[in-house]
Write a structure and sequence with these properties.
The protein has a single domain, classed as Beta-galactosidase, Chain A, domain 5 (Distorted Sandwich), CATH 2.70.98.10. The chain contains 5 helices and 29 strands. The chain has a 9-stranded antiparallel β-sheet with strand order 11-12-13-14-29-23-22-17-20, with no helix packed on it. A hairpin with a 5-residue loop joins strand 3 and strand 4. The chain is globular, with a radius of gyration of 20 Å. The site of alpha-D-galactopyranose (GLA) has 11 residues, from strand 24 and strand 27.
């Protein structure tokens, strides 16, 4: 958490308010052990738990189903907390109708054309679940799996280790993939995600997180007033099935230019063929920094009304900005309000969609003996 964090705590002390009313006891002590409660049960009786974490003024709730961020609360410039991620308050809703709200995505974030690819001369057919395409790992992706969760406190960090092993052939993917995702809340209130995976056969991997952000608070209406900056001079245009054509197109002079922060609503109704096809923004930006050894800052989201900001740093080469185009008012969030088109947005750090079929894109192949490792850090401020 940047800037105001200290002011908030100092303000509370001055006013004689216990820090717990603002950010819990965590920021004073450097974090306490995550707490586990029963969230619900799957149809087969499997218990799904909710883990609550708090540190540096950020409060996070994570489900053992899909590694879902069920709630992420941060303060505004006056210290008032809001849950800034869209979701549900029952497991039944997540199972029955979630458009990947808050979930971990695997094995492959975004689309693989026709669910087909060839690796080392072998053809693979994946689960197809989005028209002709395979989306977000197929019909039963990592977002619909039960993860083993272990809490930790390390120095001033608190967090969760999430484990899931995807068996050879699951959703059509080769190799047994052992996945470990670490969610960390730092003493500054940053939410860091470390992804790791190993395989016993050559395969493809592209893990990401599908939180739907609304920095004004979930259920509060459109994100069109949010200002977004993306450090990318190019993006990957798509065909009508939202599969990249393979071109890297310059954003200059197009609605896709977020190199200077601008309100999301400013150009979203421009009748640009790419916006018409996707019903808004639903594209992969080619981050100027490319693949980096360490996470580097690539995007900033800001809600001018509340003052809440979120910065994203990653070592990944791509960022999918999805402006919530398919939300249509049929889903109701924990606030009791419905989600309509553009009421939340996703910023998914990733390798490019359909890379297994695009030899010119950075490779998503993982081989036995290698470890897949990527990191994304969300820094909140106001
Ligand atoms: C991703 C995709 C979108 C959409 C959402 C889920 O962000 O890019 O096209 O499928 O997931 O609804």
């Amino acid at each position: 958490m940047e800037l105001n964090r200290r002011t908030v705590i100092a303000g509370a002390a001055a006013a004689g308010i216990a820090a717990t009313t603002l950010g819990g006891t965590a920021h004073a002590t450097g974090g306490r052990k995550p707490v586990k409660t029963l969230f619900g049960k799957l149809a087969d009786g499997t218990k799904i738990y909710s883990w609550s974490l708090e540190n540096g003024g950020t409060r996070l709730k994570v489900l053992s189903y899909g590694g879902i961020v069920q709630s992420l609360e941060i303060p505004d410039r006056r210290g008032r907390y809001a849950n800034v991620s869209a979701g549900f308050d029952t497991i039944e809703d997540y199972v029955a109708k979630s458009p990947y709200f808050g979930a971990l995505i695997g094995r492959y974030g975004n689309r693989i054309g026709k669910g087909k690819f060839t690796l080392d001369g072998k053809n693979y057919q994946l689960s197809v679940n989005d028209g002709e395409q395979s989306l977000h790992g197929g019909a039963q992706g990592f977002d619909k799996r039960v993860w083993d969760i272990e809490p930790f406190t390390k120095g001033s960090d608190v967090g969760l280790y999430l484990y899931y092993t995807s068996v050879d052939g699951e959703m059509g993917y080769p190799g047994t993939l052992k996945t470990k995702v670490t969610y960390t809340l730092t003493k500054h209130g940053d939410w860091r995600i470390d992804y790791e995976a190993t395989t016993d056969k050559a395969t493809v991997v592209n893990l990401t997180s599908h939180v739907y952000w609304n920095l004004a608070g979930e259920g509060s209406g459109t994100i069109e007033d949010h200002e977004l900056h993306i450090a990318a001079s190019r993006y990957t245009p798509t065909d009508s099935g939202l599969i990249p054509t393979g071109e890297l197109t310059k954003v200059a002079g197009t609605p896709f230019d977020f190199r200077k922060a601008k309100p999301i609503g400013r150009d979203i109704r421009v009748s640009h063929p790419q916006l018409v096809t996707a019903k808004g923004f639903d594209h992969n930006w080619v981050l100027d920094k490319g693949i980096t050894a360490r996470p580097e800052h690539v995007a900033t989201l800001r809600d001018p009304a509340s003052g809440r900001t979120m910065k994203i740093a990653t070592n990944e080469p791509g960022l999918q900005f999805y402006s919530g185009n398919f939300l249509d008012g049929t889903l109701t969030g924990p606030s009791g309000r419905t989600y309509r088109q553009g009421d939340a947005l996703c910023l998914e750090t990733q390798h490019f969609p359909d890379s297994p079929n695009k030899p010119s894109f950075p490779s998503t192949v993982l081989r036995p003996g290698q470890t897949y490792r990527t990191t994304t850090v969300h820094t909140f401020g106001c």
